[in-house]
Design brief:
3-stranded antiparallel β-sheet; globular; 7-stranded mixed β-sheet; 383 residues; homodimer
Chain lengths: 383, 383
């Protein structure tokens, strides 16, 4: 049946913005002094990796289409980086360059999920993942696990309860957005084994692999290379989120299917963004990266200490239960109180069933701004 | 049913590259002297609109996320441009900035098509449109019309024969890729009226609006503003295809649904690409545009005359029936013969049911290269 003037009903449940539940009052505050709701980094990209550094004379074709799979040089550089970090033998043919990790995860979902099929989402999760599943007519199934249980067995038991015959994939992010936790190695191992047992794809969101403060990150591909599509990004580590350049690593025989989705979503990843990424990997960014890491870690540690919370293990966020401080207007009222003091925070329900949580990003503004925003929150919480 | 290690069957019918039917021999010829198969432009972007011209000091946030709908300044500039050209009152809220026209058309399909629903494609068509429909689990229905019939009534009759109760939208491109023809004003009017009669959405691909050589382009929104999503791009007109910046214009109440799809496909259009586009619209590109237009038109006219074909009316292509020159190996053999002489052409079947056609782009290489490539083709055709 033709449906004009209606659009696809599948989109009714899809959020129109990352944080639709932010009270309008706070969104209107363009002049917010402490906009700590956004997941971003405040530093400019490393020297030599900015747009003004990219000369068409040095890079012929800088403004023309790149190969839809990615520039060959960048595919090679990424494969070397991934191989060295993850310990998994990785070739250029195992890599697909994408318009950010968003483009990569959308491609992985588009390639693995049919209408009506289900994807288990380890909650709390990155806010866009349920909408990605819905856009391709799949069904997102949130499973609160991180912070809910404290053993790999209990985590798998929760997933097992949520799995049905229509489940085709499981998504998790580590280092985790929003909690700042790392999934422990035995959790990743248990998830990999359980996924193998039930014939599931693994969608591993590893975009915060460069923001690890405690222990080390276990790459999902190191445990389940045959079934894992891992999404990565240059956005956060190199301060180039606006460039929209990331990549997916996964089994090469199936990566071509993801490439079909990206080809038909944005054709190719922006050429200049790929050149900037290539330069960021050639060594010139190393000192910058180390300094940024120190800045970010210290900002996170200071924020956690001031709020009386455990120090973050990774990513760039703190996830805070403010339930004890909510009055009758609930979370919206609390967020409005924050906004009235110039502080914007992301609402818990964007990350799963967390009606009393807020997320704070400690890397999206210079440290002094973050410190002042944290101070506002601490005073509201009586800490 | 879990499907690992299989991927979504919907992708089986989706092409993995723009021209999968190009013989392998020609693809291997990276050193092809006359690569006229690509739809691109050979000129660098206008002065002041290149990446090296974009300084972070001048544009704070140049490397950070842009608003997912588009930078407010660019939305305003595009609305003014579209309003002035199309004669349709257009506000910033009628515009969505997208990762190229590909991202815009994907969003329009994702927002209007449910699984199993059909989209009529006026053939010959842009090669990616069937795959976009399939990626969202819709059914593309090619309807050979352009060059098949010569009246608006006959065109509508063909569409009427192809329409079913599951048809929700009709797609057409004008100026047309690949034929170089413009859909006549009375065709656009008839298509608009017929679509209204049957409650269909119109997906109008108008990316070649700046490459009009004969007559003037009729904007679909000028006839059916309530049901048309028109896709545009900075890629071809401004020599910045690699930037991935385009836009969709359409009914504002429904544009939010398209924005949901882009948000979940690539989050935002690259920030630097939007700044480059904004600069391209501020007047500094005007002289460059005029000169480029002259170059392109003359190259097209020369190619058509040499091949004994009608001169192109618009877009950047010639679509040539080489049926009389095919031997037993068919089109693949002909394309291989071209490739052996350094000439790459796009195969007709990528544009619909055109087993004996080839497409030549006369703007993707400098004029002397195009002229030599055309000479190769003319000699193979005995012209």
């Amino acid at each position: 049946m033709p449906r004009f003037p209606d659009v696809s009903p599948a989109l009714a449940a899809v959020e129109g913005a990352v944080f639709t539940r932010l009270p309008a009052a706070s969104i209107a505050r363009a002049a917010a002094r402490f906009p700590l709701h956004v997941g971003d980094t405040w530093l400019e990209p490393p020297p030599g990796c900015r747009m003004q550094d990219l000369a068409a004379a040095e890079y012929p074709g800088l403004h023309r289409y790149a190969s839809p799979r990615g520039m060959p040089d960048l595919l090679e550089a990424v494969a070397r980086r991934v191989g060295a970090r993850s310990g998994v033998d990785t070739a250029a043919s195992d890599v697909l360059i994408t318009a950010g990790a968003t483009g990569g995860l959308a491609a992985a979902v588009g390639a693995t999920v049919q209408p009506g099929e289900e994807v288990l989402l380890l909650a709390p999760y990155w806010p866009l993942i349920p909408g990605i599943v819905r856009c391709f007519h799949g069904v997102p199934v949130p499973v609160p696990v991180i912070g809910t249980v404290d053993s790999a067995e209990a985590a798998v038991a929760l997933l097992a309860r949520a799995r049905t015959e229509r489940t085709v994939a499981v998504y998790f992010g580590s280092p985790n957005n929003p909690t700042g936790r790392m999934l422990p190695p035995d959790w990743i191992a248990a998830l990999a084994a359980w996924s193998a047992q039930h014939g599931l794809w693994i969608l591993a969101d590893e975009v915060y692999e460069d923001s690890v403060f405690t222990g080390s990150h276990v790459y999902a591909r190191s445990l389940a290379p045959e079934r894992t599509f891992a999404a990565h990004s240059f956005s956060k580590a190199f301060g180039m989120a606006g460039n929209r350049c990331g990549y997916v690593v996964g089994p090469r025989d199936h990566l071509a299917s993801l490439g079909k989705v990206t080809l038909h979503s944005f054709y190719s990843t922006p050429t200049a963004s790929q050149v900037a990424a290539l330069r960021a990997l050639d060594g010139r960014a190393d000192a910058w990266l180390e300094e940024a890491h120190t800045h970010y870690r210290e900002a996170g540690m200071r924020a956690a200490r001031r709020l009386g919370m455990p120090e973050p293990e990774g990513s760039t966020f703190l996830f805070i239960d403010v339930g004890a401080h909510l009055g009758p207007p609930g979370l919206a009222g609390f967020l409005a109180d924050c906004a009235a003091r110039g502080l914007l925070l992301a609402p818990g329900p964007s990350f799963g069933p967390y009606p009393t949580h807020v997320r704070l990003c400690y890397t999206c503004c210079p440290p002094d701004v973050v410190d002042q925003g944290v101070e506002v929150l601490a005073s509201l919480l009586g800490r």
